[in-house]
Structures are given as C-alpha cells and as structure tokens.
Amino acid sequence: MRRFVPALFHRTPRRQVRSTARPLVEAMERRQLLTASAADIIQNPFPATNASVEGRVYQDNNQDFIFDAGDVPLAGQTVFVDVNVNLVPDAGDEIAQTDANGEYFMLVLGGTGTTLKSYTVGCVAAPGLQLLTNFYSIAFLAGDVVTGIDFPQIGTAAIDVSVFGDANANGIQDTGETGLDNRTVYLDNNNNSVFDAGDLQAFNSGSGNYQFNGLPAGTYTVRVQTPDGTSVTTPVGGSSSIVLGSGQVASTTFGLNGPDLSIQLLSVPPASLFGGVKQKPIQVSVANAGTSFINGSIGVNIYASTDNVFSPGADTVVSSLLGKPMRLRPGQAKKLKVQLTVPTDFPSGTYFLIPQVVSSISDENAANDAAVPAAPTVITKPFTDLAISYGSQPIYLWDRGTTASVGVFITNNGNFTFDGQITLAVYASIDGTLASSTLLTQTRPKHLKLAPGTAKAMGVSIPHNGMQSGTFFIITAVNPSAVIGDSNPANNSVVSTQTTQII
C-alpha cells in the first residue's frame, strides 16, 4: 500500500490562496516500468530502480488544483527526488525536467516485501510563480508506479475589488452607499461576459470587498454578474481591464444601480406583550429607494433582537407578512400592516422588534432593508391562573326538598386578560376531598373575560333533586376550557370550612 502526504507552503506569499483542495494520487497499479529518456531525467543517482513516479507541472489559472481548461503546462521545470532531504535539488538527488506538456517521469528504488521505502518529491517554482504544493512524501514498494503527482503553480500578484450600491447612479460611492456582498466577481478569461468554466471567482471578505490572489503577470478583465434590472455605473463599459506585473497589487471599484427596497416604521411597537396573544398590527412603509421600476413579491419579517442591532443570522423571526405582488415606481411607497403574534413559547425578555422588507427582487442596498425601533418591547410568556374562593361559606343546614345556591369569587391570578369559557361544579364530599365526593350540579360553559388581578362574583344553583341526605363538605370547582388550560390547578377548587347537613 502506498501513501503520500502533500506538504504545505514552506514560504508565505503576500496572500494565501483561499482553497482547501489538495492534489490526489491516482489509482496505482503494478506494471512493467517504462524507460525514461535522457530528456526526462538529467541526473539519477540510483544504481538500480524498480518503481517510478510521474506527474505534471502547470500554471493553475483557476486555482482549483486540477489541470483543466484555461491552465497552462509548464515546460522545462525542475522536479526532483530529494534523496538527501535538504529540500533543494543538488548532487545526490534525482533531477528531471518537464517536457512540452509539462509532464515528468522519474525512477526510484522501492522497498521489498512489506517494507516501504520513502522519498520526498519536490519541484522548483517557475520564475514569477509560486507552488500550491511544494513537496510530497511518498512510500514505494518494488513495482509501484505512482501517477498524478502534480505541481500546480500560481502567480504572486493580486487584484482588490470593491463593489457598492450606487443609489444615485453617479459612479461615486457617496455617504450612505454601502458595500455589496455575495456578488459574483470574476476574471472573464475568455471575455464572453459570462461567468463560466475556467473563470476565477473572487473571494468575498465582507463589506463589499473582494480579492483575487495568486495571479500570474498578465492582463485581466474583471466583471461582476448583475441580475436583470441592475446596471453597472462604474467603471465605464461595465468591466475593468487590469495589467499586472509579477507581485503587483492592483485595485478597481464597481458601482451597481438597480432596485432598492427600504422600510420605515409608522407605528411604535408595543412596550410589552405576551407570547401567543394577538397584538395590534405594526404599520410600516415599504418604498422603492432605487432608480428602476419594481414589480415582484414583497413581504415583511419582524425580528426580535436583544441588542438593537439587526443581525438576521442571530435574531429570531417572531412574525411575518407573506409576500404579495407589488409594483413600485422609483420613489413610490406603500403602507403595510403586519400582524404581531409572538410564539407562545418565546423566551421572556427585553427585545427590539425590527421589521425587515423581504422580496424576490434583487436589492442593491441591504443597509435600508430593516428599521430599528427607538424603544424596546418586553415579551413575557403568558400563563393562565384562575382561582376560586367562597363569597360566604355554604349554610350549615340544607333542605334537600328546596333549591340551594353557592356564591363564589373567580380571581384572575394570571399575567394577561383571561378571555374564554369556564364551567362551575359543586360537589358534596364526606371528607373534604374530590376523590370521595358526589357531583351535585355543573353549569353549562359560560364566557368569562377577566383582567389580571381582578375578581368576579358568580353564583351556582343546586336543584333539589341533586341532593342527598347526610353531612358533607361542599366543594366548588372552576374549570377553564382545555384550549386555554390553567398553570395552577391547585387553586381551581375551594372546600367549605364547616360541614353542611342535608336533610
């Protein structure tokens, strides 16, 4: 079994190439060794050989670690087996040069049996270029033919690109015009105005900044992909032609002008609210702040932010207005109402409710897509807690031949207005527990609306045919509907402090 480990850069260029790809060793097979020509190998110290290694040296123009369209084979490049392991080709090393196709071939002495013999295989960078992989460590057995040990090389020059939303289309990045991220900035190698195979895409480092690194000396055409409705305001002609020397760093700027949706708050979010409880809608204004006509689906998300800084990746959407078809001329605005209903299980705390306009349309200025409120909102998890108590204790003597009644108070100990159905039930219990009680009567469901901290007096009639003779504790219970529930069932019933004799 043969193993190899590509070495990392042993020198640091001005900018590291941002790629995680690594060359792979192709499948190897035992076969009769080829004979290297004098043009391939210019120095071979091995008295005997029974294994070989081969590959290609090339200029990797799209920096993908693969020899493909647009890459250039490098002829006359020095590849060596570093016998004395000093990382330079010298006396005692096997040295080969690449042919017109950038290919090389070298012979080595492999191990015998199961004992592997290891070598370091390296390459010398071409003038003005740098190696993506300087060295490989390869272990051979006799008869091994190791292929695909390639040495891609890149340049030492770079291009910095800045992309911004040019709202007034004047070709200048004015105050308030922000950088645009997540755009396809590329080198148009075949100059067809399309980002396709062989073109190199820039790395986006944030705030509208992009970089091309590891470029060989040459002339490059830089372009930015633009969606329908967006135009390039600078540079003139929509592309930038840059001539680079070895190790040179150049820069260019692109201004994009197109649809730009913005949003403003027209109503102040509530100072406090309960999760799961429908609130008064928030009013917003969505405007076309760009210079081109907008025709597409537009909606609004409302985020809960703890720090008053809009961070879509960290903040949580608590309410949404689904996108609806909308047409907006430049400068035109429309008012929208967003129903605010925070999920019931949303964590309690202090938040800023930030609306963000969302759309199927490209937007050239994300900075005005959200509106941060001036004051926070306290969000609380709602809970229902109805308690029952006697207005006066049930009488100590009842005649079961007549109708009786019980008076109670229902108190809302919860943290929001109770608005729902309840039933009241009266029981006769021999020991003061519901487990040993008999139902005397139960009301039909009735609607109750009760603000937090308030109480309401209610009465329950007990028909004479519902009683039986004996001495009992009278228990009265309130039961909220199952839809609403109750967080504290322990106070949903009240037991009389004295017994009642039913005769």
Can you lay out the helices and strands and say which pair or pack?
Blueprint: E1 4-6, E2 41-43, E3 51-59, E4 72-73, E5 78-81, E6 94-97, E7 103-108, E8 117-123, E9 129-131, E10 135-140, E11 145-146, E12 151-155, E13 157-165, E14 185-187, E15 200-201, E16 203-206, E17 209-215, E18 218-224, E19 231-234, E20 240-244, E21 249-257, E22 261-265, E23 272-274, E24 282-288, E25 294-305, E26 316-328, E27 333-338, E28 349-359, E29 377-380, E30 386-390, E31 397-398, E32 404-412, E33 418-429, E34 437-442, E35 446-450, E36 455-462, E37 470-480, E38 493-495, E39 500-502
Parallel strand pairs: 3-11, 3-12, 13-21, 23-29, 31-39
Antiparallel strand pairs: 1-10, 2-6, 3-4, 3-7, 5-6, 5-8, 8-10, 9-12, 13-17, 14-15, 14-18, 16-17, 18-20, 19-21, 22-24, 24-27, 25-26, 25-28, 28-29, 30-32, 32-36, 33-34, 33-35, 33-37, 37-38, 37-39
Brief account:
The chain has no helices and 39 strands. It is mostly beta strands and 503 residues long.
CATH class of the largest domain: Mainly Beta
- Secondary-structure class: mainly beta
**Outline, from the CA principal axes?**
elongated
**The biggest beta sheet, please?**
7 strands, mixed
Corresponding CATH architecture of the largest domain: Sandwich
CATH topology descriptor of the largest domain:
Immunoglobulin-like
Number of strands: 39
Q: Care to describe what's here?
A:
This protein is mainly β and 503 residues long. It has four domains: 4-155, Immunoglobulins (Immunoglobulin-like), CATH 2.60.40.10; 157-257, Immunoglobulin-like (Sandwich); 261-380, Sandwich (Immunoglobulin-like); 386-502, Immunoglobulin-like (Sandwich), CATH 2.60.40. The protein is built from no helices and 39 strands. The chain has strands spanning 4-6, 41-43, 51-59, 72-73, 78-81, 94-97, 103-108, 117-123, 129-131, 135-140, 145-146, 151-155, 157-165, 185-187, 200-201, 203-206, 209-215, 218-224, 231-234, 240-244, 249-257, 261-265, 272-274, 282-288, 294-305, 316-328, 333-338, 349-359, 377-380, 386-390, 397-398, 404-412, 418-429, 437-442, 446-450, 455-462, 470-480, 493-495, 500-502. Strands 31, 33, 34, 35, 37, 38 and 39 form a seven-stranded mixed beta sheet that branches. A six-stranded antiparallel beta sheet has the order 1-10-8-5-6-2, with no helix packed on it. Strands 3, 4, 7, 9, 11 and 12 form a six-stranded mixed beta sheet that branches. Strand 16 (203-206) and strand 17 (209-215) form a beta hairpin.
